[in-house]
Specification:
The chain is of the alpha/beta class and 285 residues long. The chain contains 12 helices and 8 strands. Strands 3-2-1-4-5-6-7-8 form an 8-stranded mixed sheet, with helices on both faces. It is globular and about 60 Å long.
Length: 285
């Protein structure tokens, strides 16, 4: 029996597992595409042959996959649902407050302890003070998992309101989409006036995200990323969905989503999100 089973070894899931393994926690991992488990098996981590086996292997299940719809479909399959009662599930995929609420309600009905969380960091920062992990749910469940969660970054426990972590995550993400749009427009201005994008980048502090995003455009280094344009677009769709659910204005996410959708349709989904600039070059008039 291991301490925790991690389901999902994408760019972020792999970083979470690395941090937990590096801190000495006993882990079992499972990923739909088995090849992604290989480096972890080589590093001495247990790999499950199926998601059901991963659930059987630990009292705590950590989820970090595309979205709640996929993870809920996986967990509610009869083979897995029957194994869940008595377990603790920590959801760290990006979702909406409504999805968090519905998932928590379903988990309670199944007799599962549930924490809803969100990661405010990129994979390279996991395990450091630059990573913030938002968590909400029952206080006792959080206390029981606090040690594990602390390995992933600075944990902010938001209390029992199960909608809080995803709400704050989506609000926080808005700042990132604003920055992407600002850098893209800046690139168009610089290009049209024959000013180097590196000059724009240097207007910002060395470690600032604006400078990093501007650098990606300047160097055209779109192949190198820790979160793909596709993943950023999926998270943006969660912001749009929250807006529809809450009946609030969505002009801003709708505008950015239109650009990211065109970029993904043009085949840039696996690239850095700043590859959005590739579908913004044509004049709007
Ligand atoms: P990713 O690299 O695209 O990985 C996606 C993961 O989901 C993979 O393990 C994939 O399995 C799995 N998956 C997709 N569909 C599945 C299915 N039908 N059944 C089982 N597994 C499935 O994405 P990521 O960057 O790791 O992001 C994962 C989550 O973390 C997302 O919700 C994202 O918003 C969130 N997040 C990411 C970042 C970041 O910087 N990357 C930051 C904060 C939050 P396969 O390997 O088999 O495709």
């Amino acid at each position: 029996m291991s301490e925790i089973s991690a389901i999902g070894l994408g760019l972020m899931g792999a970083a979470l597992v690395q941090a937990l393994h590096g801190a000495g926690h006993g882990l079992t991992v499972w990923n739909r595409t088995p090849e992604k488990m290989r480096p972890f098996i080589d590093a001495g981590v247990d790999a499950a042959g199926s998601a059901a086996e991963a659930v059987d292997s630990s009292p705590v299940i950590l989820l970090c996959i595309d979205n709640y719809a996929i993870s809920n479909e996986l967990l509610s399959s009869p083979e897995i649902a029957s194994r869940l009662p008595g377990k603790t599930v920590i959801q760290l995929s990006t979702g909406t407050p409504r999805e968090a609420q519905e998932t928590a309600d379903w988990m309670r009905e199944q007799g599962v302890s549930y924490l809803d969380g969100a990661i405010l960091a990129g994979p390279n920062d996991i395990g450091s003070d630059n990573s913030t992990i938002l968590v909400c749910g029952d206080e006792d469940i959080h206390a029981a998992c606090a040690n594990l969660l602390a390995r992933l970054g600075r944990v902010r426990y938001l209390g029992p309101n199960i909608r809080a972590a995803s709400a704050l995550d989506l609000a926080w993400l808005c700042a990132a989409y604003g920055r992407f749009m600002a850098v893209a427009q800046a690139a168009l201005i610089c290009d049209s006036e024959s000013v180097g994008m590196d000059e724009f980048a240097h207007l910002f502090a060395e470690n600032s995200l604006t400078r990093r995003n501007a650098g990606v455009v300047h160097e055209q280094s779109f192949a190198d990323c820790t979160a793909t344009l596709k993943v950023w677009r999926a998270a943006l769709m969660r912001i749009q969905q929250q807006g529809r659910d809450a009946g609030i204005n969505t002009d801003f996410p709708d505008h950015v989503a239109d650009i990211l959708q065109r970029a993904e349709s043009a085949g840039h989904g696996e690239q850095h999100v700043m590859a959005m600039i590739k579908v913004m070059s044509a004049s709007a008039t």
